[in-house]
Amino acid sequence: MEYQQDVEINGEDEYLNICKHNGLCKKEKDSKDDTDSNKLSHIEKAYTTILGELGEDVDREGLLRTPLRAAKAMQFFTKGYKETTQDILNDAIFDENHDEMVIVKDIELFSLCEHHLVPFFGKAHIAYLPNKKVVGLSKLARIVEIFSRRLQVQERLTKQIASAISESLEPAGVAVVIEAAHMCMVMRGVQKMNASTVTSVMLGTFQDNPTTRKEFLALIKT
Amino acid sequence: MEHSKQKQYGSSENKETGHSSVLNGHFDGTVKRPAAGPSLPPAAESGSQRPVMESWREERTRSVEDNEMSLPSLAAAYTTILRGLGEDPQRQGLLKTPWRAATAMQFFTKGYQEKIIADVLNDAIFDEDHDEMVIVKDIDMFSMCEHHLVPIFGRVHIGYLPNKRVLGLSKLARIVEIYSRRLQVQERLTKQIAVAITEALQPTGVGVVIEATHMCMVMRGVQKMNSKTVTSTMLGVFREDPKTRDEFLTLIRS
Q1: How far apart are the C-alpha atoms of B44 and B78, rounded to whole Å?
Q2: Where's the GTP cyclohydrolase I domain (chain A) (predicted)?
Q3: How far apart (Å, rounded) are the C-alpha atoms in residues A196 and A6?
Q4: B121 CB contacts (<8 Å, ≥6 apart)?
Q5: Any chain A CB within 8 A of the CB of B89?
Q6: Which residues between 136 and 155 in chain A have a beta carbon less than 8 angstroms from any beta carbon of chain B?
């Protein structure tokens, strides 16, 4: 959330194509379609340069369409910039008289390290204590998708997921734990194959009440 | 830049520099051009592929100096990519990302810089009267998919039957490193490793099995999380004798 706020303050909304108003932005989106394909071709050219500079032969059969494929792949890996929680959550919040912990665990997560542009991937475990409103379960996974399909730092990703759930549902508490392996540490640099990074954010009751937190942590371990 | 560019695309430059080496350009699993012949147009080239593996003795053409010289253009390309994706390259987290990403990508393709004879194998071939199977398994392997520029990672298992000459064990892993740190296709990688060992040692047989996960299938496209791709190359007695092959496959499974 911090990150998005920074962007608004700097007045650079357009960079991120973040549409906060579902309907109003459609026109924007339409006029941005040209720019989208322009952007694709810029990225494609950049990849052609990269292949050349790495010493490869861009004309060999296996690499002929690689710049285009790599550009599209990269756009897919950063598609989260175009999505907002409002887009996906609006219909799936239900009034339910349930105030016990709801956990969705082992949500596969794939993101890109913003420092090296190399993937990191792992699992997210999310829990919340509803306050008369519950959310469709797959929406929790979709929230993870929105924020993970961006150039990210694991700490910020965890916080963004927790804040998004907190703001849309106003639950009594939210907890998010992410464990991930960072290819930037595994494939290069220190090259530690089995290291995994764990980050967590506890809000509301999860932060104030140690018993609640313990229950959550125990349940995600099984 | 000129000089290194000449080396990088060994096309018409072949004639000018007078190199008789066939593959001054980059290896793509085929012999691209005859040594002293005229340069063929790309269409004809791919049509007339001779199914010959590049000799592992081939010199690589990227040097450490080339790396340093390419860094600014690589960084500029990455800055363009960041902008194209809609990000702000000036925000704090992304300020040095183009340089880091460029260096990372050079690391992931460092196999292009390494020469098997000079760097790796010269000293470590020993005469040993051993003719039983030698297996080095579970060698972690990291490569880049040449189609999507996304990581591939997995394990390599190598077995060979020495013919009076054995190789230092870590050199098998180094051969894997040299060929995997490139833009690769798993089938070609497997074969390159097998052929390199065959040509260096002339063993009675070589078997290479690679099991890998392709991020291009896991993170995008079909998005199948648990899928693995297994490829193998069996040469010599591993190909001809089913019992040897069975023994190898059983031993790598346990």
Answers
A1: 33
A2: 43-220
A3: 29
A4: B167, B171, B175, B200
A5: no
A6: 151, 153
Q: Is B149 left (phi over 0), alpha (psi -120 to 50) or beta?
A: left
What's the complex ipTM? 0.80
Whether the Cβ atoms of residue B121 and residue B171 lie closer than 8 Å to each other: yes
Asked if B161 and B132 touch (Cβ cutoff 8 Å), the reply is yes
Q: Are B65 and B224 in contact (CB under 8 A)?
A: no
Catalytic residue status for A115: yes
8 A C-beta contact, residue B233 and residue B191: yes
The active-site residue out of A4, A98, A184, A215 is A184
Q: How do the pLDDT tens digits run along chain B, 254 residues long?
A: 444 443 343 333 333 333 333 333 334 333 333 333 343 343 433 434 433 345 555 555 788 888 899 999 999 999 999 999 999 999 999 999 999 999 999 999 999 988 766 667 767 888 988 889 999 999 999 999 999 999 999 999 999 999 999 999 989 999 999 999 999 999 999 999 999 999 889 999 999 999 999 999 999 999 999 999 999 999 999 999 999 999 999 999 97
The CA-based angle B107-B108-B109, given to 5 degrees, is 90
Assign B98 to helix, strand or coil.
Answer: helix
CA proximity to A180, closest of A155, A151, A204 = A155
* B207 contacts B235 by C-beta, under 8 angstroms: yes
Both structure tokens of B130: 């051993």
CA distances from A176 to A114, A149, A161, B225 (A): 21, 17, 7, 22
pTM of this prediction?
Answer: 0.79
What number of CA atoms fall less than 13 Å from residue B215's CA on the CB side?
26
Residue in B74, B83, B85 closest to A50 by CB:
B74
Specify whether the backbone of B226 is left (phi greater than 0), alpha (psi in -120 to 50) or beta: alpha
Contact A161, A150 (CB under 8 A): no
Q: Which of A14, A28, A56, A190 to probe by mutation at the B interface, max B CB count within 10 Å?
A: A56
Of B43, B63, B39, nearest in space to B119 by CA: B63
Nearest to A184 by CA among B108, B99, B148: B108
Chain A nearest-CA distance from B243, in A, is 34
Instruction: Provide the chain A residues 22-61 that lie in CB contact (below 8 A) with chain B.
Output: 39-40, 42-43, 45-47, 49-57, 59-61
d(CA A161, CA A107): 12
Chain B nearest-CA distance from A206, in A, is: 29
